[in-house]
């Protein structure tokens, strides 16, 4: 299967090589290091991130409860010992403020819990896994590779390269949906891709992805979105720091059995990060 027809694919391959030859000195440092994607919209919140926010909100709620109890005890003591009216008024205002703060945090924690449930249940669904499979295929397309169908072993290799250990936490249904999503990605249109990423990329960036000319920043953002989603599907599996973009792209290239024109490029300009 090919996302682009053969003539267009050849033009994209040629453009990819020309771009890398003429701008290699700028491209390689950005690929070798951690790409700066601060100009891109944030990726959708993962299940693990939603859980972290809920736990943090719960911690703040518990602290506010203790503060409210302390304020109430101080007011009760001042009243029992007949302290001055001004003192009691100040302590009453403090107790009321602490109680209101506690109630606001109770409400916020409930909202966080509800949102966490929605995000985590969505990430564990087959539909979410099907979408993640499409994103995985688009990572290959964005790197200038010809898209072809893969099998379960190849899918496992790709997933383990993105997030080691994740396949041990996925159900058979999720793995099947991921595989089906990958192998269905050839039918994606630019509109489909825009909807799939939920505003993560602009129209121009989606065009670059489908044309195999995505920048290192876009590739990095795509990888981060994928890894975050896989982490959520795996029940909040910890994400290791320092993802190696070049190593991930090398694995994708090796599994698909196509180099997106890199063999020609490396014959002209042997760039270590790209050519090994």
General description of the model:
- The longest helix has 39 residues, at 85-123.
- The protein has twelve helices and no strands.
- It has 276 residues and is an all-alpha fold.
- Residues 1-42 and 258-276 have low confidence and may be disordered.
- It is elongated and about 85 Å long.
- 71% of the residues lie in helices and 0% in strands.
- It has two domains: 6-10 and 126-275, no CATH class; 48-123.
- Helix 4 (126-142) packs antiparallel against helix 9 and helix 5 (152-162) packs antiparallel against helix 10 (245-256).
Key terms:
276 residues; mainly alpha; 12 helices; disordered C terminus
Please outline what is shown here:
This protein has helices spanning 6-32, 47-80, 85-123, 126-142, 152-162, 172-183, 190-196, 203-210, 216-233, 245-256, 262-268, 272-275. With 276 residues, the protein is an all-alpha fold.
Largest sheet: none
Along the chain, the helix and strand elements come as HHHHHHHHHHHH
State the total count of DSSP E strands. Answer: 0
Could you tell me the mean pLDDT? 75
Q: Could you tell me the radius of gyration in angstroms? A: 26 Å
Uncertain runs: 1-42, 258-276
Structural class: mainly alpha
Which range best describes the helical content: under 10%, 10-25%, 25-40%, 40-55%, 55-70% or over 70%? over 70%
Q: With helices defined by DSSP (H or I, 4 residues minimum), what is the helix count?
A: 12
Tally of individual domains: 2
Distance between the termini: 28 Å
